[in-house]
Each structure stands twice: as structure tokens, then as C-alpha cells.
Amino acid sequence: MELRSAAQSLQPQPRRDRRRRNRGQQRESEPVSDTSPTSAPLSPNADATMQRIEVIAQSLEQVSIAREPSASATPSLQPGPGTGTSIGSPRPRPKRGNGKDEKVPPSKGSGGIPSVSEAYLQASNVVSQPLGEPQNLLVVIDLNGTLVYRPSRTAPRKFLTRPHAPLFLKYCLDTFTVVIWSSARPENVKAMCEAILPPALRRRVVAIWGRDKFNLTPEDYNLRVQCYKRLDKIWSDPVIAASHPAYLSGGRWDQTNTVLIDDSLEKARSEPHNLIEVPEWLGDLNEADEILPQVHDHLNYLSMHSNVSACLRANPFKPRIGYRRATAAASR
């Protein structure tokens, strides 16, 4: 049934039995009705429809109020990550104009939204010193939007590979220490890595992390939640820590020697000056500016400085327009 206008919905609605009783009198005595839209009567089922709309609106309001359970409430039973829909009232999923779910902030149980520590800011607010020889870097690389593109969330294992991605990964593995960290589910991360990395190179990746490494609650795990890549989680992991080439003599990964490569500045909120932010790749196989070769050059530049966070704070990565044309001309 279609409601004709907002003005019509405000008109008094005659009861059905009264209209039946007086139908004959109305036909004889009433003047011809005004044909303007505001005076036309609603269809017979409008009253019931308006009641249903009011009930739905009240339900939505109750859901939005009950986003988080109270501290004293009995916790709802929820399955572990990746086991299906959680039991209990889920948080609402805001919609974008194209109908796709917007990302929602993580709950307090998932750590909330991180902030930059004062100690981190102070350590990055210095002058990075040039080195006589390159230092080894810990390079943490994202997948979706950075190296690959997944056209559909309903087919997460079907994706395109960004130009130069396999060669770029080989260069990183040959030169630095590499961790892959994606907010995709572990099974999808595994599929992507198997497609873009041959087994011999994949075994050289220190750690391949997925959605299960963000400390999300079961509810947040199954929602489209904004994930944050807190680098202190990387630095404190025993396996990754032991991959430092000078680990036995006290060498550790920290903000002076770690680079996060991602297409989202928001994900690096806790350590923003360790990020090489690349433009999100949306599947253009003829990418004009060849981003990954430029990232290759910037990594080499960072490796020649004593403090990555200070160096990136002073000289953030900025993609160069017309990079392909410039390099092609130089090679002639």
C-alpha cells in the first residue's frame, strides 16, 4: 500500500464501520470532494500501517539505546570468533548511501579507540640521524586495499592483485623482516597470501595475522568494526620480537625501526608516524602512478635513518603523480 503524502497522513482517519453506515448518505448529500492532494482520504488500511510504522520506530529506538550492556547485566552467551552470529541484541549497523554497512567503532571490550601516547610523540619529535649503512626494518604490510582488491564482500576469496605486488613482497622479504597483518578473517588472509606468495617466500614471512589478532569481542568480530593496528602488540609478540637480527644482544623492534604499510590512516591512530599511507587500490590494473615502486624507494630511504617515526614525521610518504612517465623517460 502506498501513502500518498505527508499531509495526507495527518488527516483524521474515519472508522470503517462509521463509513459503511453512512455511505449512502455521503453519496447523496456530500458535495463533490476537493481534488487537491491534501484533502484526499487515506486508503482503508492506512491506520493499521501507521501503527506498524510507529511500532517499528519504537523498536529501532530501543535497539540504538541498548548498544552496550550495563556493567551489572548478566553477560550474554556468545560464540567464539568466526563461529556465527552472536546471541543477544547486536549493535545496529549504520548504512551508507550505497547500502553497504559503515564501519562502527570498536566496543570498550575490544579496546575502544586508541590514542597516541605522550612518550611516543616525544620519541618521534626528534631529528632522525642519517646512517652509514641501512638498518633492518620490520615492515608490517596490509592486504585488502593495499596489495589486493576484493570486489565483493560476499566472495572474499575472489580478488585482484595490485600491479607489482608479488615483486614488491619479494623485495621486502629479501631486504627486511616482514609481517602481514590484515583485518580480514584468517581463512581469507590465508587464501590471499597463497595466491600472491609462492610457498618458499611465504615461509619467510615472520607472522601472518588476520582478524583474530585484534582482540575483538565475539560481537565486534562479526560486525564491520573499525580495526586498529596497535604496533605495541606486534612488538610484544615473542615470535616477532625474536626475529630482530640483534635480538640475543638486546635488539628490539620499536618505533625507530618499524614501518606499517596500509591504505588507512585511521588504523594507525596509535602510532601515526610509523605509517606509509598508500592510496587505496580499487582494482585498476593499469594504475597510472605505480604506487608500490614508490613505496620501495621510500623504504630504502627510511632504512638509512636512525628513527623511522621521526623520519616519517618530517618526511611522510607522498605519492608522486606521473611516476610511470618519469621513470620510463629516465630509462631510455
UniProtKB/TrEMBL annotation:
Segments of skewed composition (Polar residues): 1-10, 32-48
Location(s), subcellular: Mitochondrion inner membrane
CC per GO annotation: TIM23 mitochondrial import inner membrane translocase complex
A GO BP annotation: protein transport
Superkingdom of the source species: Eukaryota
Main location: mitochondrion
Residue segments, region Disordered: 1-115
Xref: Pfam families: NIF (PF03031)
Alphabetical list of InterPro entries matching this protein: FCP1_dom, HAD-like_sf, HAD_sf, TIM50
Domain FCP1 homology, chain residue ranges per copy: 132-302
Membrane topology listed for this record: Single-pass membrane protein
SMART domains found in the cross-reference section: CPDc
Keyword Transit peptide included in the entry's annotation: yes
Keyword Cell membrane: no
Keywords: Mitochondrion, Protein transport, Transit peptide, Translocation, Transport
Protein family membership: Belongs to the TIM50 family.
PANTHER family: DULLARD PROTEIN PHOSPHATASE (PTHR12210)
Function as written in the Swiss-Prot or TrEMBL entry: Essential component of the TIM23 complex, a complex that mediates the translocation of transit peptide-containing proteins across the mitochondrial inner membrane.
Quaternary structure, from the entry: Component of the TIM23 complex.
Protein known as: Mitochondrial import inner membrane translocase subunit TIM50
Organism this protein belongs to: Amorphotheca resinae ATCC 22711
